[in-house]
Design goal:
Layout (H helix, E strand, L loop, with lengths): L1 H18 L6 E7 L13 H8 L2 E7 L6 H10 L3 H4 L25 H8 L5 E5 L15 E4 L6 H15 L3 E6 L3 H6 L5 H23 L6 E6 L14 H4 E8 L6 E2 L8 H9 L21
Parallel strand pairs: 1-5, 1-6, 2-8, 3-4, 3-5
Antiparallel strand pairs: 2-7, 6-7
Helix pairs in contact: 6-8
Length: about 300
């Protein structure tokens, strides 16, 4: 009986190893602020839809509540929700609830803490358009931290991310783009202006995807595109599906092609997916689950 149990354990371990895609040396996470999943079917976004048609995707992933920025960017990068990491508002600069645990960097342990502790020689990069990202990242654990200049800086961030990917080829690159959130607030969601801005968002995504190809690392890279929240009218923070449902799109090495993900995805699953793909051990405090359905032989 003991031999049968041992054999079963070894067999299960073997399946787990097969489930994890191999040869992943780079991940690019593109976060688009205020990008409601509802908009994608009607949006003119050829670059994004190419990632979907040749990758895996869900338009029913969900943010945490409230459907606002800082609380969700923290959850995406920290693998847990606000009751664990403590950031609870759209512009949280410090946790309103004391973090359940803290890393050596004084924050709830995020994906960059894990990389620094377990892959200390790896290069990482964060390029962000909204200054509210700064309090949510472990700056001392990240190789390149580039804030965008004040004003309309999404083009700067896309250009900078592309240049860094080509020159430095980081293990993990996180790019935060402020649009279409700004247009949603100023003019409104589900407006012609909102859809027009998504065309610009798509061009920036395309520029980053092209950089991965130019860097010669496309066959060893996974690109993930997601958002912090959607919106309704000129705002967000509520409980409507337009506010809560976000896109989650994966493309690249080991990703199933043309596959709509049926599993439930919560934004903190993104960090868990990154850790799983990179072979990192997750802390006990994380609540996310890897989105294994997106990958072949999951």
């Amino acid at each position: 009986m003991k031999k049968l149990v041992l054999a079963a354990a070894i067999l299960c371990a073997g399946f787990q190893l097969k489930a994890q895609p191999k040869n992943i040396k780079h991940i690019v996470l593109i976060g688009c602020d205020g990008f409601g999943a509802y908009a994608i079917p009607e949006a003119k976004m050829p670059n994004l839809k190419q990632l979907m048609s040749t990758g895996s995707w869900s338009l029913k992933a969900r943010c945490v509540l409230p459907s606002s920025s800082a609380v969700n960017w923290a959850s995406m990068l920290m693998g847990a929700g606000p009751t664990e990491h403590g950031y609870t508002e759209w512009n949280s600069a410090v946790p309103e609830i004391p973090s359940a645990v803290k890393s050596q960097y004084g924050l709830f342990p995020g994906i960059f803490t894990l990389i620094k502790e377990q892959r200390p020689k790896a290069k990482t990069a964060v390029i962000y358009s909204w200054q509210g990202i700064r309090p949510l990242i472990e700056k001392d654990a990240i190789t390149f931290v580039v804030p965008g200049p004040s004003g309309d800086n999404d083009n700067f961030c896309a250009d900078t991310a592309a240049a860094l990917i080509i020159k430095e080829k980081p293990l993990l690159t996180f790019v935060h783009l402020s649009e279409p959130d700004g247009t949603g607030h100023n003019i409104g969601h589900r407006t012609p202006a909102y859809y027009a801005e998504l065309e610009n968002v798509d061009k920036r995504i395309g520029k980053i995807v092209d950089a991965v190809k130019k860097a010669g690392i496309a066959n060893e890279t996974v690109i993930i595109v997601s958002a912090d929240h959607g919106g309704t009218g000129k705002g967000h923070g509520g409980k409507s599906l337009d506010e809560v449902q976000i896109p989650w799109i994966a493309n690249g090495t080991g990703v199933s092609k043309g596959h709509e993900i049926k599993d439930v995805i919560i934004t903190y699953d993104t960090a868990s997916t990154l850790a799983w793909l990179l072979g990192l051990k997750e802390p006990q405090s994380w609540r996310g689950k890897p989105v294994t359905e997106a990958f072949k032989n999951h």
